[in-house]
Amino acid sequence: MAHFARLNNDNIVINVIKVNDSDCVDQQGQESEQVGIEFLKALFGADTIWRQTSYNNNIRKNYACIGYRYDSELDAYISPSPYPSWILNTNTCAWDPPVPAPEDISNYEWNETDQLWQQTSTSQNT
């Protein structure tokens, strides 16, 4: 199965669907994103916008999810920033905190107001 993200006019993912591999194969028998896009446009309308995505992140850095933005310059899907202070890493297309996370991140949460990692209340009581 191939996966495709439907984008709105602002390049925000509004849907992700599966397409049979056979509907994405060109005349030479090779999988083709463009063939998949043409198939989807025939089903959903010529004015719809589609880009392929990959569960194993082989293309476009991240698997597309509803609400993600497709960045055409980076050719990547980017999640919404978890906090205003976090910085987009253009190599990974993931958000990095302004202060590196502790090694055992499971016991911490980001405090946006104070711009630091705080131990969670459950980890403080153990």
The total strand number stands at: 9
What order do the strands of the largest sheet run in, or round the barrel if closed?
2-1-3
Weakly predicted, low-confidence segments: none
- What coarse outline follows from CA principal-axis ratios? elongated
Describe this protein's structure.
With 126 residues, this protein is an alpha+beta fold. It folds into two domains: 1-80, no CATH class; 81-126, no CATH class. It has two helices and nine strands; from the N terminus they run E-E-H-E-E-E-E-E-E-E-H. The chain has helices at 33-44, 121-124; strands at 2-7, 13-19, 49-53, 69-71, 76-78, 87-89, 94-96, 108-111, 116-119. The strands form four sheets. The chain has a three-stranded antiparallel sheet with strand order 2-1-3, with helices on one face. Strands 4-5 form a two-stranded antiparallel ribbon. Strand 1 and strand 2 (13-19) form a beta hairpin. The termini are far apart. The mean pLDDT is 94.
Short note summarizing the structure:
By secondary structure, the chain is an alpha+beta fold. Helices cover 13% and strands 30% of the residues.
